[in-house]
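Posting for a labmate who doesn't have an account.
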Amino acid sequence: MRPEAPPALAVAALGVARAANPAEYARNAPSFFADPVAWLVAAAVERALEASPDDLTAQPDHVGVVALSGDCSAITMAAVAASASRGMVSPLRFAGSNPGVLAGLPCIRWKFRGPTLTLSMPPEHGLPAAAVAASAWLRDGQARHVLIATHLVEDGVHVARCAVTRATGPGGDGRQELDLLLGDRPAAARPA
């Protein structure tokens, strides 16, 4: 038996943030720390939310987040490893080095409580799986909107992109629009 096909996705809005050094976007505090790439992703999410025709903050229980990055929190992981070799690890930096922080930080900032997923892989390979997960969450009513965010390094510049997605009716399929999240990189083959 073939599983039920997920509903088609519609891309409602896009947001982009770029930086040679993602730490430019960091808003860490003495009692809160997240990897600089997570802050860059959060900036792209913020821009996508501002561009969205729907107010996702009005329904935070119904917003899911998927993040994709081949690097994820490598900047903070390297800092934690260096400090561990000196015999001391900051608990805040340790927590902020988890790759899940890329999806988690937007949830913290905007109080989203839908399903979350971080794919620690190059976005061009993970985007088809992200689309399937987002579609399933929409189909099953676990989310009304899913933010799909990517992080890539293009010519030495960190680029985060975010799409606000929602289910669309029969006949429409915006999954190919998600390729905008990859910049100039081609997507891997999509599941049917």
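Reply:
Got it, the structure tokens are right above this. The beta strands are 9-19, 63-69, 116-119, 145-154, 157-167.
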